[in-house]
Amino acid sequence: MPDLALQPDRERLMAHIREFARRVKLSGTPDELESFHYLQAQMDSYGYQTQLLSHDAFISLPGEAKVEIEGESLRCITHSMSVSTAAAAISGDLAYVGEGTEADFAGKDVAGRIVLVDGIATEEVAALASAAGALGELHVSPNEHLYEMCVSPVWGSPSQHTRTQLPKTVICTIANEDGVRLRETLARGEKVRATLAAEVDTGWRKTPLLVAELQPAGENKPFVLFSGHHDTWHFGVMDNGGANATMLEAARLLALRASDWQRGLRVCFWSGHSHGRYSGSAWYADEYFDELDRRCVAHVNVDSTGGEGASVLTNSGVIDELRSLVADVIERQTGQKHAGRRHGRAADQSFWGVGIPSMFGSLSHQPPGPVKMLTALGWWWHTPHDTVEHIDPDNLSRDTRIVLEILWRLLTEPVLPLDYTIYADALGKQVTQLRAQLDDRIDISVLANAIEELRINAKTILETKDLSPARTARINASLMRAGRHLVPLNYTSGERFHHDSALPHPAWPSLEGLRALAKLPMASPETAFYAVHARQARNRVAHALREANAALRVALED
Q1: How far is residue 138's CA from residue 38's CA, in Å, rounded to a whole number?
Q2: pLDDT-based confidence at residue 4 (cuts at 50, 70, 90)
Q3: What is the DSSP letter of 239?
Q4: Euclidean distance between CA atoms 443 and 539, whole angstroms
Q5: Rounded mean pLDDT of 373-394?
Q6: So what's the pLDDT on residue 285?
Q7: pLDDT tens-digit readout, 523-532
Q8: Cis peptide preceding 395, ω within 30 of 0
Q9: Which segments of 323-392 does DSSP mark as H helices, in order?
Q10: Cα separation of 408 and 25, whole Å?
Q11: Which tens digits make up the pLDDT trace of 82-139?
């Protein structure tokens, strides 16, 4: 990687930060669009071809909220995708459900009541409370701050099939000290009557999406997708101004050496992340599925870089086949050893169905603290306090250097740095465990054999010495085609053309049919039913592995 030519300019980074601190960028609002124009002007000046798109998105902007307990008004907020009460508030008795897990709801009759929940509002609790027939949710913040959240379990804008999954409860959050009092009252066996009101502006509106591309290799050639959201809660100077500054500076510096690239760079700034549950990236994945399928080699997403006190660089999400690349860059830039954390269901990762390997989201994190938080991004995250003083210029430069090197290697290495031996090892562990649990109920040896073939094929590609232009092109095409089959196995339930929900997913969700059968007692009368789904799951995995191996074998042909 070039040394002097690709060093971030600290003053440029902070100038971008100061610009982003000027506006509250709610999805689909004039202030957000004005800020998008700034992004476009910057990318134009770096030599990128830009296009500012506008598309329909289902957006939810929280307004005023009211929480009354026995006539006492409490400081509160409501949330994106909460039911709006308009003029009529709701009232009900409180029912305490701990942290609102499935186990916490089990056995409790909360129908027609308002559940009191410890912790920041989430889509998981919204789904459980809605299913249980609760009228509302009253979340207790882990501290004195009130954290803005989008609580829709639907990934992206809802369709006619998924709109029924939207929350059916009125959802508010109160400060920790008020929640402690309510918990103590309920613990004494006393009834507590609560009244909730929420104004939430939810519906379809036009939102912007900026696409900026530099393609020195020529039109219709492969490209790296580099993305981050631009919409914010309040001023959102760290989330996501820090990442937007990183994106602009990385794009500027990389363009200076575009003649060294092996493939193009496409930079996307999303709206609808915060107020539409990733509606911008989900729309883009759907609208441009065919092009992404044919041409996109990897997706680098960035979120919340440069935070004050963000000293932990070991816990960012990365897909298996990119773990070696990330670990190498993190250690070179920081001396820290990356742990290779599995992606969570977040961070505009809308491209797993397409089959695109991905990394990051949030990159640098806070050290563990005494208070349990939903994220490790600082107490100011998703509050009005996310302002300039919580950006550390040194951390912002460091995070930008990491992203720069990652992108540089993805753009310039002749062979894409995708190591499917790591993928094979990870899937192999899952299948070995399942074979022991399934006994003779279903034969999945075909999976073990295919995984071993994948490991051998991937290892042979890594060891290939003949890197003539023709062989290199064939290897890259094979790696991309293999990923289209392998990535969905690792991160989706199986349907490439529909987005899974925004709820947490298990690792390797494609194996759930086999896991369900493995959990049944050997003599269970339900076995024959579960075996039907298990066979289908086995066949899906076997088919994907067969297609991936066929793609890799093409790279090995003489």
Answers
A1: 39
A2: very low
A3: I
A4: 11
A5: 96
A6: 98
A7: 899 999 999 9
A8: no
A9: 323-334
A10: 30
A11: 999 977 899 999 999 999 999 999 999 999 999 999 999 999 999 999 999 999 999 9
Residues 6+ apart with CB under 8 A from 329: 402, 405, 406, 409
- Give the distance from CA 295 to its chain's centroid: 21
Query: Contact at 8 Å (CB) between 240 and 273?
Result: yes
CB 230 within 8 A of CB 25: yes
Contact call for residues 172 and 237 (beta carbons, < 8 A): no
**CA–CA gap between residue 245 and residue 9 (Å, rounded):** 11
For 543, half-sphere exposure in the C-beta direction (CA atoms, 13 angstrom radius) is 9
Least confident of 1-10, 19-28, 313-322: 1-10
Q: How far apart are CA 270 and CA 208, in angstroms?
A: 7
pLDDT (average), residues 175-196:
97
Token pair recorded at residue 362: 């949030």
End-to-end Cα, the chain, rounded Å: 32
Q: Which amino acid is at 322?
A: L
Tokens 């049944």 found at = 520
What is the rounded CA–CA span in Å between residue 395 and residue 305?
8
At 315, list the tokens. 């816990």
Of 217, 238, 243, the C-alpha closest to 228 is: 243
* Range with the poorest average pLDDT among 74-78, 276-280, 356-360, 520-524: 520-524
Residue 2 has pLDDT above 90, yes or no: no
Please state, in angstroms and rounded to a whole number, the distance separating the CA atoms of residues 340 and 74: 42
> What burial letters (b/e) apply to 227-245, b meaning 16+ CB within 10 Å?
bbbbbbbbbbbbbbbbbbb
Q: What is the DSSP string of 67-120?
A: EEETTEEE-EEE-BTPPP-TT--EEEEEEE-TT--HHHHTT---TTSEEEEESS
Mean pLDDT computed over every residue of the chain: 96
468: helix, coil or strand? coil
Confidence class of residue 1 from pLDDT cuts 50, 70 and 90? low
CA distance 324 to 203: 43
